Fold this protein.
Amino acid sequence: QHLVEDLKNHNAQLLEQSLIDPLTGLGNRRMLEYRLDVALPLTRRLDCTVSVMMMDVDHFKLYNDHYGHPAGDQCLVQIAGVLRDTFRRETDIAVRLGGEEFLVLLIDTPSDEALRLADAMRGMIQAMGIPHERSPSAEVVTVSVGVVTSPPGVSADIDRMVACADEALYACKASGRNTTLARTLKVQEASL
């Protein structure tokens, strides 16, 4: 019996480790997929909005090259802290996709509120004042955020939403960085 209990506990720890990014403590891609399997059918049944935020640290390679990888890791940990503080509902899903890229999925959050939250998060990260001497766009670490919302009645295809949020993110970078851009998914885009 004791051996079975130990095995169950060990398996539970392994599952948790496979879902959590070890650096930031946020979920990882696998966690996102795991949670989406539950969340998306629920949003369809309840006919509610789904918003996806794609966030990227501006000029992070320059940061790492100048300050070193341990400082870059610490920067990512601090940014993850802002994400945890901003997105606290049980239905909010914040993950580190890899490198300096993060994704947040919000359920039942209208597009204007998703944009407000994304911009507030962007402002909090800038307000931390982490020095970034090599950044051509700011003296401190900043982020760019692309947001896309699938309104009620439009079935959320997560791959398409992530692609649209990524396009919005790159539009932010093209327009000077340290900004937030939002789009609403249209019916024809949702079904592509």
Q: What stands out?
A: The chain has a mean pLDDT of 88. The helical segments are 2-19, 29-46, 60-67, 69-86, 111-127, 158-174, 187-190. The chain is about 50% helix and 20% strand.
